[in-house]
Amino acid sequence: MAGVEEVYRAEYGRAVAVLTRVTGDLDIAEDAVQEAFAAAAALWPSHGTPPSPAGWIITTARNRAIDRLRRETRGRDKHAEAAQVAASAHSEEGAVDDDRLRLIFTCCHPALAPAARVALTLRLLGGLTTAEIARAFLVAEPTMAQRIVRAKNKIRDARIPYRLPGDADLPARLGGVLAVVYLIFNEGYAASSGGLIRTGLCAEAIRLGRLLAGLMPDEAEVLGLLALMLLVEARRPARVLPDGTLVPLDEQDRSLWDRDLIAEGRSLLRASPGRYQVQAAINAVHSSPGGTDWARVLALYDLLLRVAPSPVVALNRAVAVAETDGPAAALDLLDGLDLANYHVFHAVRADLLRRLGRDFDAVAAYDAAIALAGNDAERAFLTDRRRTLSR
């Protein structure tokens, strides 16, 4: 049974992608693949795992899809569909990489709402159940199920094509795909509510990043996103104490960092000004065993602010300015940022005020950060810092 589970995690997205190509229908493809895995769970423990598990699943799913189309036939059109599926000569072999890329770009089509893109990507490519996705994002399972159904209906009703974008559209569409994977990782690494880290989402985002890097090895931004996630993930063992206490970067035990992940992340860095490559480069500097070179971090944030300007990037740049030019210079930079509803903005401001000895103002800023903080670990950390000032 464990073998089936391993194949499911590794091959579910590939099988759905292939069946979507040969049937042209997401629902039929997914149902057929699920039936194939159910058959594998019943047969493999007693008959043994086949030499090509992925091929077995795809062939079985294709046969199930043919049977369904024949059962539902209402005339020659459905018979023709079934014949077309049966005649597909490369369901097991062929352009599987293209199939998965088509599915990724379909799931992340700009016509779909961002939340729907995330849900579909995790469902169809990651093979996560609706219940697992709902738990990860702390929504009710029926709500998540409706979100997935609506997304599939949108693809069908709007006739969103199951194909790769053209060369002219690829950069913009690829950015949307990478943004979805990054959103999944961010929600796992700093959950919007509940506990601080959801390791399953982090692992799934990295797995999707590896998949994209394997399918598009010449795209610097794809490599940059994977590098960024690996470098951030490498520090996770030191980020939280066994009792759940959050540990800021400058207080972490660097000996606990995963050096293999850091090395892999560094190997993916390219001399590219893309937003993910620059963010990965910043995290590579943070991941140095000898400490952070803040002047280098500031220079990279200057570049990032030109490449992908946003108030959050400006806020992070101000943190680097505090380390190079002092908290007063950094505090001046915060005045023009429209981030009143972002708890990190108030947390940074509170820390700068604390370092300047303006404890009364710092307490007020900590109160604002605590009120907006979503997850328990960050709220506890901020509360402890505020309590220290109060004493």
TrEMBL record:
GO terms for biological process: DNA-templated transcription initiation. Residues 104-155 form the RNA polymerase sigma factor 70 region 4 type domain. Residues 173-272 form the DUF6596 domain. Pfam families: DUF6596, Sigma70_r2, Sigma70_r4_2. Residues 8-74 form the RNA polymerase sigma-70 region domain. InterPro entries: DUF6596, RNA_pol_sigma-70_dom, RNA_pol_sigma70_r2, RNA_pol_sigma70_r4_t2, RNA_pol_sigma_r2, RNA_pol_sigma_r3/r4-like, WH-like_DNA-bd_sf. One of its GO terms (molecular function) is sigma factor activity. This is RNA polymerase subunit sigma-24. It comes from Virgisporangium aurantiacum.
